[in-house]
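Q: Got a minute? One more chain.
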Amino acid sequence: MSEIAQLKDLPDISFIDNLTMKEVEELTKNGFSRSMQGATGQTPVIYPASVPALVLKAMTLLGYQILQYVDAGPKRMLLKYSAHDDLDDLAGNYGLIRRPAEKAKVTIRFTLSDAKQPGAVGIPAQTRVRTQDGIYFATTEYAEITPGSQYADVEAEAAEAGAAWSGIEKGQINQLVDPIPYVASAVNVTASSGGTDIESDDSLTERTYLVPSTYSCAGPPDAYEYFAKAWRNDVKDVSVQSPSPCVVDIYFTLQDGTLPSKSDCDSMEENLRDDARRPMTDYVNCKAPTEIEYNIDVTYTIARSKSKIAVTVQNAVNEAVETYKVWQRTMGRDIDPAELIAQIKNAGAKKVKITAPTDVVVGSAEIPKLTTCKVVYGGLEDD
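A: Always. Here it is, folded:
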């Protein structure tokens, strides 16, 4: 079932009137009793361990399983319930295809040694460079260090597709696997980015939900949101604003609340400025949201009656704080200490005292940013 916000408030439906296993069992028994009474004129007595009781139990299980298939079949055709291959087929009705995983890209700088080279030094395509722990990247095209130059910057991509290959910081891809004469070193001068996993069901569901908005040529916000999220798999939040006539500002974040780089913004702008995606009079800008800093300073206690599981509760509280950090790192989401208190109490704490954060309104083009986090266990407290 989809978890996207646009569909979560739609009512659940059942094509079998929400029949339970117990109700199916009663219907099976009643049907058997009526048939026996019609055939013999007597109401049958069904003992728990009798052959009729076991047969009816087997019929109930089979009947209930069939009902589940009856219920699931039509649901697969509804966006709220569709998933996996069924969702692919449903999205295909709108001309959408699940986006594949993509390889992360990075810029590698190849630098010459002090030895005098005879001329231009070629860097073959597929020259491999790796990190110390064995994450491989390979150049995507042939390049040269021209005479008089000391280095050349070359684009490289990860050996495999996936989000795990993004976020490798500058200087960490520095082991030249395929030696090149006169080249002393190779190191990434940009962080790796653009690596994505295969598109999730929720992402494809949301794009399918938004695609009718793109049928308009008036440039509605939903249409820009759709095209922004269709640009790359790792786009998470999108806010579309028009500060003045014919100007459209699109603020976006990547997965885990990561801010887009300038190259990310430039790439999305180029994609959205295509005449097939925007009205001719719109000037589209893609930007990272402004970060609104906040701190966490919390002291909590545990009820003495829970002393035997105090360590378990402490671990649960730490997990709750981490969950809150992820929840709060959402564009346009107000900084909400009440949510933090609720999550810590749900983890088993008795009393929660919060010094920070405080309530802060966050605009649609802003995103909360945690700067410091202090969580103190205040000990056991009488119930």
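A: DSSP finds nine helices and 14 strands in the chain.
Q: Perfect, thanks.
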